[in-house]
Write a structure and sequence with these properties.
The chain is an alpha/beta fold. Helices cover 47% and strands 8% of the residues. The protein has a four-stranded parallel β-sheet. A two-stranded parallel ribbon has the order 1-3. The longest helix is centred in the first third of the chain and has 61 residues.
Length: 315
């Protein structure tokens, strides 16, 4: 669409200095005639003419300087726009190349693409959220929780044998994305929530990360190692934390309804205002929990191995 308003403003900026110049020229011609009509003395007339000419030339000179500054400003703005266009083209090329490499069968190529996307998100704030959506979509597609995994996992966890170990391996590219997502910027200004719902995040590490405002619906963190991480205002509805180490983690105002945390190693977790309705805490020790209240524990699953903090006393 043509920017008529911008063109009108530009025309006005050019026209005004030209108008002043024209007025100045008219004054140069008219003033001597005016003084001659008033018929002052010749000496006085010469003095007035000289002063008038000096003043007019000063005005014209000032107008020329102003006009020159305006032209300089226009050149600078044009240069800045050219730089912006060039930068956008470079970002687009980098973005396209990274997306193509993300589908490579070679791990090292995929890792290069993942780090390239992180760099684009840092260099181009307007592309930040697009990159985050691509990375989370990659995790949801390449580490999804399937019905086959669900049936296998149901058999594995049925007897609650604490000595059994999870016999799977974490993928390096998925771990890399988790690390990048956990250290991303613009967390408070993102248009939506990071969505890693229904993904298989078993055995992955979440260390010194920030996943505030994220969604982990039916996500499996079984066997994961989570330390010094924020999950404030996130959703963990029906998520699974079987044999998960959770240390110094903030889950303030999170939704943990029907989540399974049995049995896990829980140390220094902030449950302030967290919704725990239906959470499975059988076999869990919550002695190190922070900001936990009896009201939050009214509707939970527990057994004789469930341990509550000393500051909570039930009648």
């Amino acid at each position: 669409m043509i920017d008529l308003k911008g063109k009108k403003q530009a025309a006005m900026i050019i026209a005004i200095p030209l108008l002043f110049i024209a007025v100045g020229i008219l004054l140069i011609i008219a003033i001597p005639e005016l003084w001659q009509w008033l018929q002052p003395s010749s000496a006085k007339l010469a003095e007035i003419r000289n002063n008038a000419v000096k003043t007019i030339f000063q005005m014209v000179g000032g107008l020329i300087v102003i006009f020159g500054l305006y032209l300089t400003y226009r050149r600078i703005r044009a240069s800045e726009k050219n730089v912006e266009v060039l930068q956008d083209q470079q970002v687009t090329e980098r973005f396209t190349r990274a997306i193509e490499q993300l589908g490579s069968e070679k791990l090292e190529v995929r890792l290069g693409a993942i780090y390239a996307l992180e760099r684009i998100a840092k260099d181009s704030p307007k592309d930040h959220w697009t990159v985050m959506e691509i990375l989370t979509a990659y995790v949801r597609e390449n580490s999804k929780w399937t019905e086959e995994k669900d049936e296998e996992w149901r058999i594995f966890t049925k007897d609650r044998n604490l000595q059994r170990k999870i016999d799977i391996k974490a993928k390096i590219d998925i771990q890399t994305i988790i690390t990048i997502l956990g250290r991303r910027s613009h967390i408070g200004n993102e248009p939506d929530r990071i969505n890693l719902s229904e993904t298989d995040l078993r055995l992955y590490k979440f260390i010194n990360s920030d996943f505030t405002n994220a969604v982990f619906y039916k996500t499996h963190f079984d066997g994961a190692y989570i330390k010094n991480t924020r999950f404030d205002n996130s959703y963990f509805i029906s998520a699974s934390f079987f044999q998960t180490d959770i240390i110094n983690v903030s889950m303030a105002n999170t939704q943990l309804a029907d989540a399974k945390m049995n049995p896990s190693f829980l140390v220094s977790i902030d449950f302030k205002d967290a919704k725990l309705t239906g959470i499975d805490l059988r076999g869990c020790s919550l002695t190190g929990a922070i900001n936990l209240t009896l009201d939050q524990l009214k509707i939970i699953k527990e057994d004789e191995l469930t341990r509550l903090p000393e500051y909570l006393r039930r009648d």
